[in-house]
Design goal:
This protein folds into 2 domains: 61 residues, no CATH class; 39 residues, no CATH class. It is mostly helical.
Length: 116
């Protein structure tokens, strides 16, 4: 299959439109410290190693579309903790790790109440 010619910018934008960015990748330094990739590092990696957009056999545009519409992650987590609390109050076993984490979340919420 012969691939159409695309610019560096087009390839980078293709992956940005799918919701990818430098903020999703970490670089581990030789001393073990971890930092987020720079924009330049991420873009160079996309250009050098990521597949040509035409090689994607499936329409992946849904990824970016969904990300735009999903609620904020904090809001999602808050609802998940409320659901888990409801389940536990109704006799559902959350397991040891789930119970410990829910206890921790509830302790924080009760010790630092919302203003009214």
């Amino acid at each position: 299959m012969e691939l159409r010619s695309i610019t560096r910018a087009e390839k980078i934008q293709f992956y940005r439109d799918l919701g990818f960015s430098e903020y999703q990748h970490n670089h581990v330094e030789s001393d073990g410290t971890v930092r987020t990739w720079t924009r330049e590092e991420w873009e160079e990696n996309v250009v050098e190693f990521w597949r040509h957009p035409d090689l994607h056999e499936k329409d992946l545009s849904y990824i970016a579309k969904r990300r735009e519409l999903y609620p904020d992650e904090v809001e999602q987590l808050d609802v998940i903790w409320k659901i888990l609390s409801h389940l536990r109050k109704n006799g559902i076993d959350l397991g040891e790790e789930g119970s410990k984490m829910l206890d921790r979340i509830e302790l924080i919420k009760s010790s630092i109440p919302k203003f009214s």
